[in-house]
Amino acid sequence: MTSIKEQGPEAPTAYFTGTVHVNLAVTPEDKLNVGLGKVTFDAKARTNWHTHPYGQILIVTDGIGYYQGKGKSVQIIKKDDVVKIPKNVEHWHGASHQNSMTHIAIVPSDTNATVWMQAVSDEAYDKALTDEKSAVTISEKAHQNHNQLWPEYQSNFAQTDPELIQVFDNFAFDEIVGHDNLDVKTRTLMILASTIASQSVTEYKMFANAALNVGATPVEVKEILYQSVPYVGISKVIDFVKATNDIFRERDINLPVEPQSTTNPQTRHEKGLAKQKEIFGDRIDDMYKNAPDDLLHFQHYLSANCFGDYVTRNGLDVQIRELATLSFLIALGGTENQIKGHIQGNANVGNGRQKLIDLMTQLLPYVGYPRTLNAVNCLNEILPPKK
């Protein structure tokens, strides 16, 4: 048995600059059609430029380092990063200026072939220091929470807009996520709901994939989407339907998903009205009673269409549906009257003040302060804090 715990002997200076230790755990003599070793670089140490005829994979296990492909900018690499290097690509890698770096190197070849070239000059290496100073510094907690939603995802914005990503990720995925105990699936589905009302197809795609990654079913994703129609409008939702279908096809999820309707044209009004009363109580009778004759049809539409066609569906329980509806309304903005009604509706189905505070907290990075604080004001009016 071979141990990879030790550093191993120093690497030859002909191929490396600075102090580098190489521990080859798998060699050509093992005849396993792969080379594998642990390479530890002291600060400022690095390889020469080189290529691998069969490509290479680097798995960073400790520290901070650099990787650069020929003609490309330097990438900052750190613990848990995976670098996939295509065959015959000229490149170098090593530790950063201030930190050591250790990686596992995997070469898919019995010969462990490496074509070595010239050393990386101090001038070329020092150019990476500018990139390192502007590199994204993400907290370990933020990294873990982000990776839970999107395993191994590498954002291009980390290279083009590092300061923004650093501030946002540390806030949204560490400080905000750490505020409360809202479970990850519910939190992800509610953010997903807000992206529909915010008309952000790009962010919706991210969170649709995230929801599936953390255990939401295709039906649950579709039901969030369908429920948005009576609140956001089909003109705004139809692009999200297409985006969802594209994602499902990419993930080999069969379309259409299982049907969830519980009503038909004959029962939709009756069942919808019953669902309204389940959530909002006797005030629904007052809404019918107080509606002018020329506006009464809107009450019928609310019962039969909004509730009968959508809210009565299976796939999501009533608590999640009410949270999703509130997420739509908060993200839309200018819906304070409806927000107040659905804050009370949430309370009626068991989503108390603390859960609604948790929801509003999690939506904050995605909908902004004005909409969130307007919703908080509505919450304090309908469900004031206990003194």
Topology, pairings included?
Elements: E1 16-17, E2 20-26, E3 35-41, E4 46-47, E5 50-51, E6 56-69, E7 75-78, E8 82-85, E9 91-95, E10 101-107, E11 115-116, H1 122-133, H2 140-149, H3 157-160, H4 162-176, H5 184-197, H6 201-213, H7 218-232, H8 234-250, H9 268-280, H10 283-290, H11 296-311, H12 318-332, H13 336-348, H14 353-367, H15 369-382
Antiparallel strand pairs: 1-4, 2-3, 3-10, 5-11, 6-7, 6-8, 6-9, 6-10
Helix pairs in contact: 2-4, 4-14, 5-6, 5-7, 5-12, 5-14, 6-8, 7-8, 7-11, 7-12, 9-11, 12-13, 12-14, 13-15, 14-15
Key words describing this protein structure:
single chain; 387 residues; alpha+beta; Jelly Rolls; AhpD-like; seven-stranded antiparallel beta sheet; two-stranded antiparallel ribbon; 11 strands; 50% helix
Shape: elongated
In the CATH scheme, the class of the largest domain would be: Mainly Alpha
| Distance between the amino and carboxyl termini | 66 Å
The overall pLDDT, averaged over residues, is 92
Question: What would you call the structural class?
Answer: alpha+beta
Would you give the CATH topology of the largest domain?
Answer: AhpD-like
What is the total tally of β strands?
A: 11
What is the share of helical residues?
A: 40-55%
**Count of helix runs:** 15
Beta content: 5-15%
**Corresponding CATH superfamily of the largest domain:** AhpD-like
The succession of helices and strands, N to C, reads EEEEEEEEEEEHHHHHHHHHHHHHHH
Low-pLDDT residue spans: none
Number of folding domains?
Answer: 3
CATH architecture of the largest domain: Up-down Bundle
Radius of gyration equals 28 Å
Characterize the biggest β-sheet.
7 strands, antiparallel
GO molecular function: peroxiredoxin activity
Organism: Flavobacterium silvaticum
Pfam family, one: Cupin_2
InterPro entries: 4CMD/NDH-1_regulator, AhpD-like, CMD-like, Cupin_2, HNL-like_cupin, RmlC-like_jellyroll, RmlC_Cupin_sf
